[in-house]
Amino acid sequence: MPSISTTSLSLTVQLRSVIIWVSGARGGFDGPAGGLYGTLAEELVKEGICSLRLNYRFPADLPSSVTDTLAAISFLEGLGFCSIALVGYSFGGAVVLTAAPYNALVSSVATISSQTYGAENASQVSPRPLFLIHGQMDTRLPASCSERIFSWAKDPKELILLPGGDHSLGSCRKEV
């Protein structure tokens, strides 16, 4: 088991589970809802779950972004992590749905306000659980995108539509 030191929390914990947080087409580390990825990463480390926030080499390029995600999975596997969850926002939803089937250590997948382009293989995520969340007021990528992905996916799967939520889900931050 790797030992990960978190300076912001001033503690060292043994971590075996990790979440890879993948952003939208512009890249970056923050994710939706005003920097939600960083906030959740700080909270989850207290539960023994490590986080890796991924930025792409070539944002908006699906094949390269999937390759970056697979490289991150391989790196974490080499460190001894045994359970990897993938979370992708917007364009990143398609990235994690595409990457998930390629490594058995991926234990679950979540998408936030996902696009459908590149997500057509959602059925291949099974038997891993798939969780989709989308705002019903999203004008950039309508909630029907996540509904379509949900229809493509096999069980286990869950879809939550948030009334009043826009693309970034900033107004629904606590629910997200």
Topology, pairings included?
Elements: E1 3-6, E2 11-14, E3 17-22, H1 32-45, E4 49-54, H2 62-78, E5 83-89, H3 91-99, E6 106-112, E7 130-135, H4 144-152, E8 157-162
Parallel strand pairs: 3-4, 3-5, 5-6, 6-7, 7-8
Antiparallel strand pairs: 1-2
Low-confidence stretches: 1-13
| Spatial arrangement of strands, main beta sheet | 4-3-5-6-7-8
Question: Can you count the beta strands?
Answer: 8
| Content of β-strand | 25-35%
Rg of Cα set: 15 Å
Which features does this protein show?
176 residues, alpha/beta, six-stranded parallel β-sheet, two-stranded antiparallel ribbon, 8 strands, globular, disordered N terminus
Please give a quick description of this structure:
This protein has 176 residues and is of the alpha/beta class. It has helices at 32-45, 62-78, 91-99, 144-152; strands at residues 3-6, 11-14, 17-22, 49-54, 83-89, 106-112, 130-135, 157-162.
What does this structure look like?
By secondary structure, this protein is α/β, with parallel strands linked by helices. It is 28% helix and 26% strand. The protein is built from 4 helices and 8 strands, in the order βββαβαβαββαβ. The chain has a 6-stranded parallel beta sheet, with helices on both faces. Strands 1-2 form a two-stranded antiparallel sheet. Strand 5, helix 3 (91-99) and strand 6 form a beta-alpha-beta unit. Helix 2 packs across helix 3. The protein is globular.
